[in-house]
Amino acid sequence: MSAGLPPDTGEADPPPVVPRQEGPSGATGLARFFGSSSLRLAARLALIFVGATLLAGLVSVPLLTGALKERLRADARQMAESLAATWQVAGLVDLHAQIATNIATTRDFANLYLFIDNSGRIVFGNFNLREPFVGPRELVSGRDMVLPGRAPDGLGFSAYGLHIPAGYVIAARQTTALDEVRAIVIRSVASGLALAILLAVGVAGLLAWRAERRIARLSDVLTRAAGGELSERVRDTGSDDIGRIAGAVNATLDQLELTVESLRQVSSDVAHDLRTPVTRLRTSLEPLMLREDLPEDAAAEIVSAVAQADRIVRIFNAVLRIAQIEGGGARPRFARLDLGMLASDLHEMLEPVAEELGHRLIAEVEPVTVLGDRDLLAQAVSNLVENAFRHCPAPARIRLAVRRNGAEAVLTVADDGPGIPAPEREAVFRRFYRLERSRNSEGSGLGLSLVAAILRLHGGRVDLADAQPGLRVTLRLPVSAG
User: Which DSSP state fits 141?
Assistant: First the structure.
């Protein structure tokens, strides 16, 4: 089966109804969300934010611990200078007394004090060294120094030594607190980083979700517009890039709707204005067909003229019918009906026509209830079957089938004729479009346009596919509940 249609007039008719794409919900919505550019952009920003937080932590830990270490070194130097000042003012006895006092007020070896004379024999303090030193130095108990009693090895100290005329004074501060502070800072940075990751992921997901919802609304409007619903608009009040695109899409749809409506109105006005004079012309020619005194060739020309007038009137009627359906002027009588019974009735009516043309029309139907206008649906199915009659060489096998597929009623008209090439299957739904091989065959080029308009009115869609050989036309309508 093929669509025999006259040359394209250039009118921009909407394509057949296509399924609507809803926003991000369910498995499909999640797949779209996780594959969206919005999420990828938000993820990159979150990664940058987390990386910056991690970098700040990596920088802050050594800076803070370095500052604390310098503070401990300064304290050790101040302690050593205080001991040196005591010796200088009061002598060695008071120096020993000062060291004893400091040791008595120190717990857990937090502070260390030591005096060693120049000979190295007189040692007084709460730790001992292998050899004295001058200036700052990092000491570890058990390796560089010896602590009295059961003091554990491995304790770290920041020490400072001074050389005085009587010998060496050395003071040290334990760095265990520094290690604890470092651990606290690292835990704080880790906790902050974890919180930053959660916050970044949450904010990024929220921003991506909002952007994806806006993009989904924009895509949904464009999909509906592609399906012929040019009155749809994007409801987006944002002032960002998506908002500006939404405004541009709305402006484009406004202009497109105006242009398409103007084209439809022109075609409807032309068809309406010309139908009456053509009908009058046919009425004027009809009495001439009954005259017996006309030459045979003149009578044949008159019969041909009347047939052509009938064909023109049928074309005009089809154009007006499509315009009524698409423009909302039609008043369909929707009711619950059995699509399988409708197909059976049409099969019974068209089967004699198929036999007369040398074709075989087969019906395979099952009961499926839909909500629709019986006359319009019957016209759509009849157009498909008659197209098969017209464009399939005899003998052809034409199959009319109705079945239910989930929430859809599926009506199929398949034949074993020449079919329609895949690149032209979208174009045949345009008004007056004809395949090249159909130029010399009868047809108005409006049959499939009318079928598509009727399906749109019923919230369904029409698909064309290869029947191998031939063409399979599938009408899909929502099943009526209840």
Answer: B
Radius of gyration of the chain (CA): 47
CATH topology of domain 19-226: Beta-Lactamase (3.30.450)
| Count of C-beta atoms within a 10 Å radius of residue 314 | 12
CATH T-level assignment (fold) for domain 334-478 = Heat Shock Protein 90 (3.30.565)
Distance of CA 27 to the CA centre of its chain: 12
Answer yes or no: are the C-beta atoms of 30 and 205 closer than 8 Å.
no
Residue (of 78, 77, 169) closest to 127 by Cα position:
169
462: helix, strand or coil? strand
Contact indicator for 447, 432 with CB cutoff of 8 Å:
no
What number of helices (H) and strands (E) belong to the chain? Answer: 9, 14
360: phi then psi, degrees, rounded to nearest 5: -125, 120
Q: pLDDT digits over 63-103, tens only? A: 877 888 888 889 999 999 999 999 999 888 899 999 999 98
* CA separation for the pair 44, 204 (Å, rounded): 9
Contact 233, 250 (CB under 8 A): yes
For the entire predicted model, the pTM comes to 0.44
pLDDT at 439 over 80: no
Look at strands 461-466 and 111-117 and give their pairing: unpaired
